[in-house]
C-alpha cells in the first residue's frame, strides 16, 4: 500500500517485518513448518509464531493446514513471490559486499600533485591493478589545496599532498598517513661556478635569478632564502617542473625543485646539488576517518607506502 494510505476502516497498515517475510518464504519453499524449521535451525513453534505474526500484520491468512503439512492461500502465494524477491536481492547484496571486501570489484578515488602522480603514485596504481584487477582506481591530478577540497567534497577517497616542514601542516580532522620526507634540491645551469661543489649554500645564490613554482612553493622559496639572509629575485613562475628545468638549462636562472620532480623528468643539461642545509617537505596521504577501514582504501594505502619507499630522503 502506498505511503500515506490507510487500510479499510481507517486503520493504518502494519509495516511488513523483513525477517518474518524471509521466514515465511522458507515455509513456502519447504512446504511445511517443520521443514522450514530444519533449514533455519529453529524450533517449529518459533517458525509458527513468526508466520502467525505476519498474518496478523497483513490481516489475511497466508497458510492453511493440510494433514501434517500446509498449503499456501491465494494471499500466501502472492506474498511468497515478494518474499523470494527480497531473499534474492539480499543474496545479491551479500555477494556484492563479499566482492568489495575481497577487492574483486569496487572503485577508489585518488588525488595527487603532479610529481607524485608521475612517480610513486603511478607505481602504486600499477601494483594495485596487478594484485586486484577488478578494482577501479580513478586519479585526479591536483595541487594539495585543491586535492584537500576535493577530498572534503567526497570527490576522492585519498589525497596525496605535501607540507613544507617550516610551515604548519593543514589540519582537516581526517587521517594522515605519512609516506616520505622528500628532499628539495638546487638546480643550476651547466657551467655554473658552483656546479663543481658536492653541496651548495643557498646563500651563495643570492644574486641569481630564480624560477619559482606553485604559490605554496614560491612562498617556501622566499622563506628558505630569508633563512639564508636574502630575498630571491623571482623572475619566472611556473608549476611545470619540465619548464623550470628548461629555463635553468638555458642559463637564465636557478631553482629549488623537489626530488620527485627530478625523478619524474630530468633535463640532461642541468646540474643538481643538495643544499648545504637540507631542505625537505613531508608527503602524506589524507583521508576521511570513516574511509580508513574500507578494504579498497587500505589496499591503496599499502601500495602507496610501498611505492614511496625508494623516494624517501636518506
From TrEMBL:
Residues of the HTH lysR-type domain:
16-73
The protein in question is named LysR family transcriptional regulator
Family under the similarity heading: Belongs to the LysR transcriptional regulatory family.
UniProt entry tagged with the keyword Ubl conjugation: no
Origin organism of this chain? Kineococcus glutinatus
Is Transcription among this UniProt entry's keywords?
yes
What is the annotated signal peptide range for this record? none
Q: Which InterPro entries match?
A: LysR_HTH_N, LysR_subst-bd, WH-like_DNA-bd_sf, WH_DNA-bd_sf
The alphabetized UniProt keywords are: DNA-binding, Transcription, Transcription regulation
Amino acid at each position: 500500500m502506498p505511503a500515506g494510505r490507510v487500510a479499510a476502516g481507517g486503520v493504518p497498515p502494519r509495516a511488513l517485518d523483513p525477517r518474518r517475510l524471509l521466514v515465511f518464504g522458507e515455509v513456502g519453499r519447504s512446504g511445511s513448518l517443520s521443514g522450514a524449521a530444519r533449514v533455519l535451525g529453529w524450533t517449529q513453534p518459533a517458525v509458527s509464531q513468526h508466520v502467525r505474526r505476519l498474518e496478523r500484520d497483513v490481516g489475511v491468512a497466508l497458510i492453511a493446514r493440510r494433514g501434517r503439512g500446509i498449503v499456501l492461500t491465494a494471499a500466501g502465494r502472492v506474498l511468497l513471490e515478494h518474499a523470494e524477491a527480497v531473499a534474492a536481492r539480499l543474496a545479491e547484496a551479500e555477494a556484492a559486499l563479499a566482492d568489495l571486501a575481497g577487492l574483486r570489484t569496487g572503485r577508489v578515488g585518488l588525488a595527487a600533485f603532479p610529481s607524485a602522480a608521475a612517480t610513486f603514485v603511478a607505481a602504486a596504481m600499477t601494483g594495485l591493478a596487478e594484485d586486484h584487477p577488478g578494482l577501479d582506481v580513478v586519479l585526479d591530478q591536483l595541487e594539495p589545496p585543491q586535492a584537500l577540497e576535493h577530498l572534503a567534497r567526497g570527490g576522492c577517497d585519498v589525497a596525496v599532498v605535501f607540507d613544507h616542514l617550516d610551515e604548519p601542516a593543514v589540519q582537516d580532522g581526517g587521517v594522515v598517513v605519512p609516506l616520505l620526507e622528500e628532499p628539495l634540491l638546487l638546480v643550476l645551469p651547466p657551467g655554473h661556478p658552483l656546479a663543481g661543489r658536492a653541496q651548495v649554500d643557498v646563500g651563495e645564490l643570492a644574486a641569481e635569478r630564480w624560477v619559482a613554482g606553485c604559490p605554496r612553493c614560491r612562498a617556501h622559496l622566499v622563506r628558505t632564502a630569508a633563512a639564508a639572509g636574502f630575498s630571491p629575485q623571482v623572475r619566472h613562475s611556473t608549476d611545470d617542473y619540465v619548464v623550470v628545468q628548461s629555463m635553468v638549462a638555458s642559463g637564465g636562472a636557478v631553482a629549488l625543485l623537489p626530488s620527485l620532480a627530478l625523478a619524474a623528468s630530468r633535463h640532461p643539461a642541468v646540474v643538481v646539488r643538495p643544499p648545504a642545509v637540507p631542505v625537505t617537505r613531508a608527503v602524506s596521504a589524507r583521508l576521511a576517518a570513516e574511509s580508513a577501514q574500507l578494504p579498497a582504501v587500505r589496499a591503496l594505502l599499502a601500495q602507496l607506502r610501498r611505492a614511496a619507499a625508494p623516494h624517501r630522503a636518506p
